[in-house]
Amino acid sequence: MKTKGPKKQYIAVTFLLLFFPLILCYQELVFHIFVIGPAGRNIVYPLLFAFFTGSLISMIWNAIPFRALRWISGFLLTLFFILFFQTHVVYHSVFVTFWAPFSTLSVAGQAFDYGGMIHDNALANNTTLILLALPLPVYLILGISCFRAGAGKAVLPSYINCCISAAVFLFLICSDHDAFECTLGRNGLDDGMATVGAISSSIADGLFAGETGTLTLSTSGTPAAALTPASAPAPVSPSPSPAPERIIPGLTVTSDTPAYEIATAGAATALDILTEDPAEDTPETAEAFVPQPRVMDIDLEALAETEANKNIKNMHLYFASQEPSYTNEYTGMFEGYNLIWITVEGMCKYIIDAERTPTLYMMTHEGFDFTHYYTPLWYGSTSGGEWAVLTGTPPGNGGYIAMEHTGTSKTNLYFTPSMRLRDIGYECYGFHANYADYYGRNKSHTNMGLKWIAYGTGYKGELWKNGNLIWPQSDLNLWNESTAYLDFEKPFYAYYMTISGHAQYNWGGNAMAARHKDLFADLPYSDKSKAYLSCEYEVELMLTQMLADLSEAGILDKTVIVLTADHVPYNDMDICDELAGHELEQEFEQYENALIIWSGAMKEPVTVDKYCSSIDILPTVLNLFNIEYDSRLMAGRDILSDSPQLVMFNGSRSFISDACMYNAKDGSITPFAPYTAEDISSEYISAVQDEIKNKARLASLIIDNDYYNKLDLPAPAE
Questions:
Q1: Residue 517: closest CA among 509, 669, 300, 9
Q2: Within 10 Å of residue 93's Cβ, how many Cβ atoms?
Q3: Does residue 526 contact residue 578 with C-beta atoms inside 8 Å?
Q4: How big is the chain by its Cα radius of gyration, in Å?
Q5: Which of 501, 533, 510, 506 shows the shortest CA–CA distance to 520?
Q6: DSSP, res 288
């Protein structure tokens, strides 16, 4: 009997000392296994930080003098961490990106719009959620008796645990640059989650959100210098499959010609495409085309010499060192044309079909036909996708939502299409069939120079009998209402963010799917896939009516239409698998999408096999319109230029370059001829990853420092 007291007290002190350190380690481990998976860099860092955090909590918790208060606070803390990890799991399941709890507070209320998806994904992840909840019954079973026996005995041991785990964690990350930067939230949210865990990354989001610290660029050398052999010629084709015989009119691929190279001698030029009879309009002795660098008259090195701010100084020097893109045979092809730019909600390329969507199909294949185009899933979901498309830069991975932040802070977005076109006399409108302030677009899009027309600022929409907007709204109706604002007799730029293709995809809760159900009911697909095709059919109707109206106004051949998706239907990729006819590869293939750049003036299609992504659209369009911009200042590259191809995937170290496709999840390399896997060294992989990291870091620094305001740029038009 004498031993029972000391033994019980020993168990109680052990419980009070180790409960929080161990449950946080347990929950980080469950999260790592079921959510992060193979992408995790090292489980040691997450466990060490979890143990440190748990020890710190234990030290404070055990110092509470009243047993009842200590028990209640312990219960609430246990419940808090269960909900914390469960929220991370469900958020990642819904959005396929990680949750930044502090940075997304401003849009937290809009999460209720995803209520059905949250419910479905919670059910799909019930095993993980149950495992994360197991600490609660443990606490309830052991807690009360342990409080009675071990009161106040665990404070000093908790302090010792806290100091030791903190010291070991700091020692290890100080010798690991990536882990150190992840701890400060500067390597991106995905990297942080995979490297140092959910607790550390969330704390970094709260303490360092919006801060990128002193600019220290990664330097593993240039990718080209790391290739083996370094002097190898450009790849014959960046595609593992044979290149088409005709890349663009007049160009035939030879053994020395990259598959995405723009035609030179003997090939059709922009004038050939735009003019019915090129012979009448082309001078007999045309001057030879001489490519010019796409740079502005900005002396970045001189600015660096007089700049006191270290970050801005380093940014000047970095951008000055970048190789610009050059003008090409398509420069100015659409100069003076009207521009209609459409970001389609949740589109994948498998909705495009010659019979079901003939207008979409025609525009995809009879304009610029991009055969290897990707829409990576950017941080911020739709808002991040819009940002990438409209700014030519990635939105950052963690911290604030870039689009919303720039609207609130009035960041100079000089190179966005509306700002550049407004400066040369275009009327610039933005249209959206949802609430004007959704995702803060009433601030962000007006900050870009758009006259923002949405519900509450001019868009009427279709309403239920109770006066509420039907969900989702009709893209066709959006176009029809927008024509009241557009003056077809003056140059205009019209931006559309569609909504008809928004999840969820069913017959009962999606008004657009229900509207077109009969057209797709007999297809050999699941109801969810048929509902998806039905609601996205609104894009086809919108485009068909748009072309008819532009043709009637006599401006179809003076208007350019750019169309792409904000993202794939990331929460319903089984739809894309079904429509594709096979399970899509998850690192690259599931993000391959459609990009349309089309005009009624084009007499022949232009096939482009260059690998490209959503951040490459803006520089491509600016070049086609011959609008002055500085290619060194954008992460994206003019797709039609001879700049090297590079597709970066948000939060992933995977990429597609001139030499290969690199899958960071399994380390696999798919080389492009003439390279072999043996030619692709680890140094090359690191060099490309560092280049991508630099581009992402600088994209955030441009916002943080309102960088474009630090340059000698012409004042924007009012």
A1: 509
A2: 18
A3: yes
A4: 28
A5: 533
A6: P
Per-residue model confidence (pLDDT) at position 208:
66
The residues facing 564 across adjacent strands are 343
pLDDT of residue 69: 85
Cα of first residue to Cα of last residue in the chain, in angstroms, is: 87
Q: Which two tokens stand for residue 566?
A: 């904000």
CA atoms of 281 and 301, how far apart (whole Å): 43
pLDDT per position as a tens digit, 593-615:
999 999 999 999 999 999 999 99
Query: Residues 156, 160, 162, CA angle at the centre, nearest 5°?
Result: 115
Contact 169, 52 (CB under 8 A): yes
If residue 427 lies in a helix (H) or strand (E), which one and from where to where? Answer: strand 427-435
More confident residue, 204 or 579: 579
CB 686 within 8 A of CB 220: yes
* Greatest distance between any 2 Cα atoms in the chain: 111
Which residue would you say has higher pLDDT here, 718 or 238? Answer: 718
Alpha carbon distance 676, 383 (integer Å): 39
Q: Which two tokens stand for residue 558?
A: 């003076």
Q: Is 78 exposed, middle or buried (0-12, 13-18, 19+ CB in 10 A)?
A: buried
d(CA 654, CA 650): 9
Q: Rounded mean pLDDT of the chain?
A: 84
Contact indicator for 377, 591 with CB cutoff of 8 Å = yes
Residue 596: enclosing H or E segment and its boundaries? Answer: strand 596-599
> β-strand 596-599 against 559-565: which pairing, if any?
antiparallel
Q: How far is CA 479 from the centre of its chain?
A: 26
SS3 597: strand
DSSP codes joined into one string, 332-373:
TTTTT-EEEEEEETT--GGG--TTT-HHHHHHHHHSEEESSE
- The answer to whether residue 209 scores a pLDDT higher than 60 is no
Amino acid 440 reads G
Q: Which residues does 531 contact at the CB level (< 8 Å), separation at least 6?
A: 505, 506, 507, 510, 513, 517
Distance CA(134)–CA(26), nearest Å, equals 10
Residues 6+ apart with CB under 8 A from 279: none
CA dist 507 to 404, 469, 500, Å? 32, 17, 13
Name which of 657, 696, 642, 691 is nearest 325 in CA terms: 642
Instruction: Please tell me the predicted confidence (pLDDT) of residue 266.
Output: 31
Contact criterion met (CB below 8 Å) for 595 and 402 = no
| Euclidean distance between CA atoms 193 and 679, whole angstroms | 32
pLDDT for residue 684 is more than 50: yes
Q: Which residues contact 700 (CB under 8 A, 6 or more apart)?
A: 212, 396, 399, 402
- Lowest mean pLDDT, pick from 19-23, 218-222, 404-408, 419-423: 218-222
The partner residues of 491 in beta bridges, in order of sequence, read none
Distance CA 244, CA 609 (A): 9
Which ranges in 258-330 belong to alpha helices (H)?
270-274, 278-281, 300-306, 310-321
pLDDT tens digits, residue range 377-426?
888 888 899 999 999 999 877 777 888 889 999 999 999 999 999 999 99
Question: What is the DSSP code string of 654-674?
Answer: -EEESSEEEETTTTEEEE-TT
Q: Are strands 660-663 and 655-657 parallel, antiparallel or unpaired?
A: antiparallel
More confident residue, 214 or 443: 443
